[in-house]
Design a protein that fits this description.
With 312 residues, the chain is α+β, with helices and mostly antiparallel strands. It has helices at residues 2-28, 36-68, 74-93, 100-104, 121-124, 127-130, 149-159, 189-195, 216-219, 237-247, 280-284, 286-294, 296-299, and strands at 112-116, 134-144, 163-172, 175-185, 205-211, 223-232, 251-261, 267-277, 304-311. The longest helix is centred in the first third of the chain and has 33 residues, at 36-68.
Amino acid sequence: FLDQCVHHPLMYFPAFYITKELVMGATNNPSGKPDIARVLSDYRENMKEDLLALWKIWVPATLFNFAFMPMHLRIPFVAGVSLLWTCVLSAMRGGDVVHGQDMAGGAVTGSTYQILLEGLDAFNMTPVEIDPNMEHMNLSAAGKQRPGLVAMLARHVADHGGNVTHSKMVRLGEEFIIQMHVAIPKEQLKKFRGSLKDRKLTELDIQATALTRRPTHKTTAVLGMRIHCVGEDRPGILADVAERIASKGMSLEDVSTTRRMSKNGVREFVIDALASSPNLKDKENLDQCISEIASLEQELQLTHFDVRVHTA
């Protein structure tokens, strides 16, 4: 009890978060100094998840060790469980990025990126390409926000043979905005289009756009990037980031933005983007490509910039 409920929550985890900040904080913070108060605040937010993960491993392992393990095997057993727990903790809280300086000999200063050799399906394949035997439509709808609005449209799509794959929905003021990708069997397309004029949907302003497959023989990505950046909210920050990506000949596959308040009360703008390139030169000159994009961190005075590189 003392180990799991006193030692770990009050000593072990705070020491872990503080040590991590002392080692990595100077490079992750705009001030260049470790921020102990921030990481302890992070620990308070993560405490429930951290302790549940700890107990799921150590409570059963401890019971099994004392109930069934021979005396001479108890220490090796604990050492093995400790190795497992270290891997779990590292995956959860150890940081999922690698410093650019360590990977590229200083080519990316102040930013981080990680190379992931896990394929490019997320960049090359959308539902339009995955289901070539279906017809594909984009539905854009807007209406006064009320309970059941999404349920009404989603049920209508399903009842008329459509299958919603990707969707994004958000309330903006009094309006509720819906965007859906719908896959429909070819023989039901005409009927589905006509059903969008149903009187039950009159409270929604619906626009339907047919989607076609991209000619992948000319645009297959050989390099993909997941870009996450955060900076103080100001007009033009999205344009600056998008222009830098475009200047490298990269296409944006998916972009989402949001605004939030930081812990210091500063309004921040957050961009998450998927960008792809069919250019082999980018893959061969990866360090330079990453460096030029990551230089946005200093140019735009971003508080966080993270790039994950996907390559086949």
